[in-house]
Amino acid sequence: MYVAVKGGEAAIANAHSLLADRRRGDRSVPALRLDQIVEQLALGVDRVMSEGSLYDRELAALAIVQARGDMIEAIFLVRAYRTTLPRFGYSKPIDTANMLVERRVSATYKDLPGGQLLGPTFDYTHRLLDPELAAGADVAEPLLRETEAQAMPRVSAILAREGLIEPDGDMPQDHVPGDITREPLEFPMARDIRLQALSRGDEGFLLALGYSTQRGYARNHPFVGEIRIGEVELELDVPELPFAVPLGTVRVTECQMVNQFKGSAKAPPQFTRGYGLVFGQSERKAMAMALCDRALRAKELGEDVVAAAQDEEFVISHSDNVQATGFVEHLKLPHYVDFQAELDLVRRMRAEHDARENPPKGDEKREAAE
Amino acid sequence: MTDIATYNFAYLDEQTKRMIRRAILKGIAIPDYQVPFASREMPMPYGWGTGGVQVTASIIGPDDVLKVIDQGADDTTNAVSIRAFFKKVANVAVTTDTASATIIQTRHRIPEHPLKTGQVLVYQVPIPEPLRFLEPRETETRKMHALEEYGLMHVKLYEDIAKHGRIATTYAYPVKVEGRYVMDPSPTPKFDNPKMHRSPALQLFGAGREKRIYAVPPFTEVVSLDFEDHPFEVQTFDQPCALCAAENVYLDEVILDDHGGHMFVCSDTDHCEKRRNAPTSPLWGGRAEGAGGGLDQSTPHSTPTPALRADPPHKEEGKEKQ
Question: Above 0.85 for ipTM, yes or no?
């Protein structure tokens, strides 16, 4: 019989079993446990929770193993699970001013109330591969400060007292926060929707766009007002109860970018804000998000839209890596009926082209003249 | 370990299905209006048919009989995978037989066997917006649809003629639905466009990544765009299927060796198998009459033996006009 695709079902089953085998790898090497991933690959877990939009370390770890460490595949697994979960309600906005802070740095003030707190950062490590780690050396207990007594106000609040920075964005009184997982995106979009999309957007994509703003494509003169990482409490309003019910805490990274602004027809000279907020510990993502958020506010602030990072439809339509990877990779699905149609057209156009280029005998003179 | 919840009938939760059904109803009420809907992540990647799968999951019931094709074939890997998905999450009967299916989910083809009233054809759509390649901005294209401003599309087709002497669009060929909206029939070869016209079946289009649903209700006008002096034409093949000798069906080119040997076989595997099992059946005398508005039946030729050939497979077009 001919060579085509009979037996798709068996082929798929076989491919899956081979995948399972490769995922497990050498059976003499112990299998990874989820708690090992949660504990020791925590930043990878955080990224999967953040871009998967589901705060569950164990599921994120499972997704990472199941995806053989392919982060976008893991994010995809988490998304496809989360989308089936029932929606009980929307929590109250988290209050990051009351965060139980583990790291907090400001690039705009040498010292400030609450102090600079480096926390568990790579920032000042020397990137020298550490053979001791491979050998499984014991790790000493870290020094921890006593529980924070001093309040840690946000830098944006400090600037706001002098009116030097624009107020935190206001939404109209009757504004119901959007939900990008329950409503289709529409352009132009309100900032709440945009921030949701950025928060689950691909880290690499936002990083590159944020970087492009620094290199002059919609430069927005940023300073890191503050980055803080820590636990915040989640509360939910329950109709039967007169008070909000605490649900537990989540770990988040928040970045308040302070951007210079000379003023425009619409706004006085003052600092403006770019905002980034993601699950877990991911400064790179939160900072890139804040740069993009600020760039995307160009229209609102009366700036010229000249670069990709300022173009809402361009940025938001292409920031979701699950969508992007799906559409790029679908090109490996069969397209032969359409290709057949194109083959036919190209063949006929080539035939016509040949006929024009090599006309039947008798036209030799004309050809020589050319 | 976290307990993974079991999934609802046909995977999607009932609220989501209701939301999608509302979008479908709106789509049916305004033929080919692209209804935005809150597309969900599905357990297969975007680009693999998540829009079609969501539409099917929202309309399928326990008594439905599902057929899934990709490139016209029931046995391509993605069709197998989607069929297996619904078998698993909805436990419905599945078939490869076009006539006995109640829902047919498809990628890139419309079955050769005419569809009938009560059947639903669900298309997987990558880019629902026919104007997208002329205007990348959704904000602009929605305006153009609202104002019925399709001049750009005609200019594009005209430029094709000016440059190539013909309309050089072979698939995803734009159609006008019920005299109002211009539609992308999803990337089906234009060969299939006439089958959409006045089809007795309900045609639903789902684009998951782009979050759009649109519909062509039964017996709706679907007219391919063209010009008076350059009327719409479909592909014709000047040899029949090498396996079942069907004529006026869409054929796939199968490469047989590395010396240019190839043959042409039916893209619609169900159609082809049926013909091979019952080659004398009058039903299969040629291309099945299109689901309304199809092409004129051409006179059946005698059945030539399958031949290897390296020359272009097609006759001149233009003989079969609507």
Answer: no
